[in-house]
Design a protein that fits this description.
21% strand, single chain
Length: 182
């Protein structure tokens, strides 16, 4: 069988542990990497530096996906319905610019798709959708302990009380997009 083409999607929806856990269960997603992007501080940022809010980076996930199995638009709809895109620089108890809702597009086609989804999703929410739309810039992979965080820490309090409910909502809302093993 011929290798299927892959593409990248980069989303920031608050804490990257939550976003990573959701997209790891999506059919057609090959890899999800937690990291940082969008800041202005020189050098590779650390988790501690990003959490300070001084680097300008957002916690994001970079998703490698097969467009033959899952469309970029479907990824956008999953992203927009599994976090709160109406709160500025905040997701739940996580507050700061590093937790902003943001879509980093990798080409003009992704930019146009994101604009359409952002327009269409407005009616889903009572409050204004404030998700930022920006061109993808340098992505920095987060430290190893932040990769596969939910899978490795399911019994940890944050995972139990914050991530598990988000996953349950995702699984119910997007059941047709789940991997067979999810």
């Amino acid at each position: 069988m011929k290798d299927q083409k892959t593409e990248l999607a980069t989303f920031g929806g608050g804490c990257f542990w939550c976003t990573e856990a959701v997209f790891q269960e999506v059919r057609g997603v090959e890899k999800v990497v937690s990291g940082y992007t969008g800041g202005t501080a020189p050098g590779k940022p650390t988790y501690r530096e990003v959490c300070s809010g001084l680097t300008g980076h957002a916690e994001v996930v970079q998703i490698t996906f097969k467009p033959e199995l899952i469309s970029y638009r479907d990824l956008l709809y999953i992203f927009m319905t599994t976090h709160d895109p109406t709160t500025l620089n905040r997701q739940g108890a996580d507050v700061g610019t590093q937790y902003r809702s943001v879509i980093y597009y990798h080409d003009e086609e992704q930019k146009q798709a994101a604009k359409e989804v952002l327009h269409n999703i407005r009616t889903y929410y009572e409050d204004e959708v404030i998700t930022e739309l920006s061109q993808a810039v340098t992505f920095y992979q987060a430290e190893e302990q932040h990769q596969d965080y939910y899978r490795n820490n399911k019994l940890q309090g944050y995972c139990s009380f914050v991530i598990t409910p988000k996953l349950n909502k995702f699984r119910k809302m997007h059941a047709d997009k789940l991997r067979q093993s999810a």
